[in-house]
Amino acid sequence: MCHEPQARPPLPPIAGASDVARTADIVLTSSDGTEFLAFEALTADDGAPGIVILPDVRGLHPFYKDLAARFAEAGAHAVAIDYFGRTAGTEARPDDFDHQPHVAETTPDAVARDVFAGMQRLSSETTATRRYTVGFCFGGRKSFNQAALQEGLDGVVGFYGMPQRFGDDDADPPVEAVGSYSCKVLGLFGTDDRATPLSAVDGFRAALDGANVPNEIVVYEGAPHSFFDKRYDEYRDASEDAWRRILAFVGLR
Fold it and tell me: How many domains, in total, are found in the chain?
């Protein structure tokens, strides 16, 4: 479930890497005054889009720092955020960090505030005029719903983002929020994802279509949860296709 400490993102299928202007660990401040960890990777390309990366339930860890760098090499500015500034502070964390108690303390409002801080960082440090979110698992779910929570987004991307409702106390099931979405959606799923049955994917697509939200919902045959990992050669084709679709979605191909 989600990306393990050893996981790393696949390389994007690009002919030649763009120059990376800067990579850095940073601390951002949310609109409620909370400081939280983030990592930025900025490209030297003119006219590059800006992307806020929403990690899985483990928060900001090396997979997402590497992913931000891969986006910069592909020609996009990227800021990967952490979720746990309010409960875990801004200290570095070990691979065995117990994230679950901190996940339980997150709220949709707090995540949206932190995403907005990431967007503000992109605005202050770059000339990006197009802005997107890309999220994974827990973050994929949150990424989908930024389409209803952020002004000025051009699109949202979610990998295995579990759009269905999970019980009565589920705070923000994407399938029930699509009526408030204000930008296009790219959803990337696998048929063998035990966290997201195909019926949930089909229901999300139907809800988006019913709300007239432009969307592309892609399902990869035989792919499990967290298939987007360069260690998994058997899912290389799915990962390369996902990269191509994301780059096209944000206007880079």
Answer: 1
For residue 52, the surrounding DSSP H or E stretch is strand 50-54
Domain that holds residue 110: 20-249
CATH number of residue 105's parent domain: 3.40.50.1820
227 three-state secondary structure: coil
Q: Return per-residue pLDDT of the chain as tens, 253 residues.
A: 577 778 899 999 876 778 999 999 999 999 999 999 999 999 999 899 999 999 999 999 999 999 999 999 999 999 999 999 999 999 989 989 999 999 999 999 999 999 999 999 999 999 999 999 999 999 999 999 999 999 999 999 999 999 999 999 999 999 999 999 999 999 999 999 999 999 999 999 999 999 999 999 999 999 999 999 999 999 999 999 999 999 999 999 7
In a domain, 9, yes or no: no
- Could you tell me how far CA 188 lies from the centroid of its own chain? 11
Helix (H/G/I), strand (E/B), else coil: 225: coil
Residue 67 lies in a domain: yes
d(Cα 65, Cα 46) in Å, to the nearest integer? Answer: 22
53 assigned to some structural domain: yes
- CB neighbour list of residue 119: distance below 8 Å, 6 or more residues apart: 50, 52, 131, 150, 152
Report pTM.
Answer: 0.97
Longest dimension (CA), the chain: 48
